[in-house]
Backbone:
């Protein structure tokens, strides 16, 4: 771990230099909806009973016209209440949810790091690193070569051969972070995945994120912890009810968000 | 809204013109195949992990992969060969039955366990970006691994009943690979159907059972009166594979008719299944 990237020196803003260059992520008028079905299973009997009309459902309009552009070398915080569309935005950036309208363009495939991403609970941490890495298209030989580094980074050396289901949520988050850093993505999306780790691991992941940003990567950080966003980003986007309320300097965004939350 | 050091907002058209990649868009079919190929190791790791998981807690462990087909063969032989004496005029009924049974169960198990896989692993699809077709593909590879011991048992029983080994036995792996591709085609259809109707999983059990009785496994299709019904039973996809396998193993001959029908069904299944499954790609993550 590089000792010089720590604490407040994490945020790297190279936006002024990047304005002329091709951005890393372009989101243009993004609308994402998904259907939430009533809590009944879709069965043939019900299908016939409804005369083949669609199942009863609610259309959740999670994102309603979000536009922003992020540069290479930029770390962007995403803040907002529960259910405001932050996680949906991350999934859409990673290409895991289709856009209903509008577009998402990225310079390379973003990698999403989310709490509760499902791997195989009965298999060991080590095997899950292999499986997760290969799902993201990393060659097995490369994974095997990096395995020791990944394990050291996660700090899970003692638990790495235990089944994943015996891990705490913090340990599982560490493992995922290890897998994602094996891919060395240029665009990393972090959805609350830092919240579950302990202070030591948070420090290490923040350093790793700073490395990515310093290497002209782009990082999005979704977090409820204002201090994490403040420490790691210079720019923040506040989302509410699927729309951007504020997009600008992190300090100003956090202040405006805190004021709005306090006002109720 | 204040904007500071951030870049000027681009439009999607500008981004596309600058060569950025669109996200959340279904890749064209060829790019989709390339994506599958680049994740071939993933397709192998998942079934290997599942197998390890399944045999971890049992006393006999991996031996079950051999014992299951043996016991199953024993039960059917006892029932139809010894008790009912229902041999349908077939010589060497035991071997004849076993070949039909095992060849069919390869397809049956692959399709049955593929049906739910996309629904079961929806959470994985929502967390990691990979082509959904890798899931039915990995189930089929897993079933292939489980089928290999069954093939050994099958060949062993055929030899034990006094059939002399023939050069055509060496073609059995080719037929198995062909059947694997056929199974994959059906699996893709079953997996997508289950996304739309969860009932498919249950329905499929019965559809496959009916198919079992109509595939000339317990009695030869020649018992049916000559006419359209017999033609239907003969050309029915599983029967073409079974007939080809019986030809190779029991009669030492290549049943060209059965084999060419099997090839035809395979091409049809994999093309139809592949194209239809791909049409829904990008939306499988919503299946929960």
Residues:
């Amino acid at each position: 771990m590089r000792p010089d990237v720590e604490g407040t020196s994490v945020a790297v803003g190279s936006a002024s230099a990047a304005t002329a260059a091709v951005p890393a992520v372009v989101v243009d008028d993004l609308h994402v909806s998904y259907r939430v079905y009533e809590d009944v299973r879709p069965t043939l009997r019900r299908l016939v009973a409804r005369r083949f009309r669609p199942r009863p459902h609610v259309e959740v309009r999670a994102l309603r016209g979000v536009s922003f552009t992020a540069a290479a070398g930029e770390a962007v915080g995403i803040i907002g209440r529960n259910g405001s569309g932050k996680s949906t935005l991350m999934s859409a950036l990673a290409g895991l949810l289709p856009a209903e309208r509008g577009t998402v363009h990225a310079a390379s495939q973003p990698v999403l790091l989310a709490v509760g991403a499902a791997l195989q609970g009965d298999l060991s941490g080590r095997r899950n690193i292999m499986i997760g890495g290969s799902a993201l298209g990393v060659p097995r030989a490369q994974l095997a070569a990096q395995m020791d580094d990944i394990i050291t980074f996660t700090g899970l050396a003692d638990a790495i051969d235990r089944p994943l289901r015996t891990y705490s949520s913090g340990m599982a988050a560490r493992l995922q972070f290890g897998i994602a850093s094996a891919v060395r993505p240029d665009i990393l999306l972090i959805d609350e995945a830092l919240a579950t780790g302990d202070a030591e691991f948070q420090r290490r992941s923040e350093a790793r994120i700073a490395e990515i940003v310093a290497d002209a990567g782009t990082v999005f950080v979704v977090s409820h912890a204002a201090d994490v966003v403040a420490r790691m980003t210079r720019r923040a986007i506040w989302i509410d009810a699927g729309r951007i309320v504020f997009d600008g300097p992190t300090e100003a965004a956090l202040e405006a968000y805190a004021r709005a939350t306090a006002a109720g | 809204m204040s904007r500071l050091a951030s870049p000027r907002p681009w439009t999607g058209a500008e981004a596309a013109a600058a060569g950025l990649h669109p996200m959340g868009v279904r890749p064209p079919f060829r790019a989709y195949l390339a994506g599958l190929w680049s994740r071939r190791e993933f397709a192998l790791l998942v079934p290997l992990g599942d197998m390890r998981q399944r045999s971890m807690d049992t006393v006999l462990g991996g031996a079950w992969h051999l014992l299951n087909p043996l016991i199953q063969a024993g039960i059917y032989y006892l029932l139809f060969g010894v008790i009912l004496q229902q041999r349908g005029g077939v010589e060497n009924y035991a071997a004849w039955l076993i070949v039909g049974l095992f060849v069919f169960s390869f397809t049956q198990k692959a399709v049955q366990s593929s049906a739910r896989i996309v629904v079961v692993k929806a959470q994985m699809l929502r967390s990691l970006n990979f082509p959904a077709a890798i899931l039915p593909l990995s189930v089929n590879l897993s079933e292939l691994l489980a089928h290999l011991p069954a093939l050994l048992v099958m060949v062993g029983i055929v030899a034990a009943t006094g059939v002399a080994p023939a050069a055509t036995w060496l073609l059995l792996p080719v037929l198995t690979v062909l059947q694997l591709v056929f199974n994959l085609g059906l699996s893709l259809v079953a997996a997508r159907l289950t996304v739309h109707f969860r009932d498919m999983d249950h329905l499929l059990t019965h559809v496959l059972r009916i198919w079992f009785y109509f595939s000339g496994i317990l009695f030869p299709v020649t018992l049916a009166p000559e006419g359209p019904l017999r033609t239907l039973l003969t050309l029915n996809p599983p029967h073409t594979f079974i007939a080809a396998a019986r030809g190779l193993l029991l009669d030492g001959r290549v049943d060209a008719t059965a084999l060419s029908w099997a090839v035809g069904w395979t091409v049809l299944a994999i093309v139809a299944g592949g194209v239809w499954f791909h049409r829904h790609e990008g939306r499988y993550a919503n299946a929960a």
